[in-house]
Amino acid sequence: MSTDRTVPALDVAGVSHSFGRRRALYDCSFTVPVGGVTALIGRNGAGKSTLLRAASGLLRPDGGEVRVLGEPVGDRSLPRIGYVAQQAPLYPMLTVAQTLALGRRLNPRWDAGYAQHLTDDAALPSTARVGTLAPGHRSRLALVMALAKRPELLLLDEPLASLDPVARTEVIGTLMADVAERGTTVLLSSHVVADIDGVCDHVVVLAEGRACLVGEVEPVLAGHLVAVGAGFEISTLDGAEVIEVRTAGRDAIALVRSAGPVPAGDLAWHRPTLEELLLGYLRAAGPELKREVSAA
Ligand SMILES: Nc1ncnc2c1ncn2[C@@H]1O[C@H](COP(=O)(O)OP(=O)(O)OP(=O)(O)O)[C@@H](O)[C@H]1O
């Protein structure tokens, strides 16, 4: 099936969801374009897993709409989605080979050659029972199951969390190759900013169940500046939209939204790195904190 590149891979429109009195998503809206890697970043409890479950069809949100590849999430979209949940749920009593055989039986688009290639790459022993695999190997197997389905949209909840540094590099390489060769769209969640630097071309930052920053990495970076100076100098940032102010030793450091040239004056300015930018948004997460910062 060829993917229509004119519609978003994922369109989240005004989605809200609560678990009892606990609000996980609140009027959350953003789109993920077709092709490439989008990082879904947020602190613990920001709503990342809830959002991915809604996109995968496992959770029906209380409000709003989620469309995948132009269609409401449902029977027609499900074969086009690969989803790996945070704990990489698999059947512990099955062997690796039996797990792959099950994948083949359940998925009409299953690519057995690719599954075997990925399994070999991850050095997964085919006779080992899933329950005996190390957590990192289990997540590699879960990823094989999702990729061999040949999805157009791959939803990965913290896919790198349990991996050692070598496995992490291998998984990132596999994902990027899939994106380059097949035009797959990958949406992966993480709260480890360093993990996604150099991997994603788009970012979505979730804070308290809402998207507070959405965009392509380069333009988003070009739309922000970091100012470093004494606290009283930072307090004169008239007119700039201040995302976050923090102190570091004798200096104050401000992240501001500004696409203009680096201003002249006493402050030292630079464009943020992706890590500086995302950490700034994560630290500022929450409207109350933002109000305090703006008033500083
Ligand atoms: N099944 C559930 N029952 C009750 N509350 C839930 C449930 N799932 C999530 N929540 C709550 O909803 C909010 C969002 O949780 P979610 O797991 O989506 O966040 P997250 O960004 O994925 O967090 P983490 O990075 O810690 O995995 C949290 O306050 C969480 O406690």
Automatic annotation (TrEMBL):
Protein's UniProt keywords contain Mitochondrion: no
One family name in Pfam for this protein: ABC_tran
Ranges of residues in domain ABC transporter: 10-233
GO molecular function: ATP binding; ATP hydrolysis activity
Keywords: ATP-binding, Nucleotide-binding, Transport
Cross-referenced InterPro entries: AAA+_ATPase, ABC_transporter-like_ATP-bd, ABC_Transporter_VariousFunc, P-loop_NTPase
Entry protein name: ABC-2 type transport system ATP-binding protein
Organism: Actinoplanes xinjiangensis
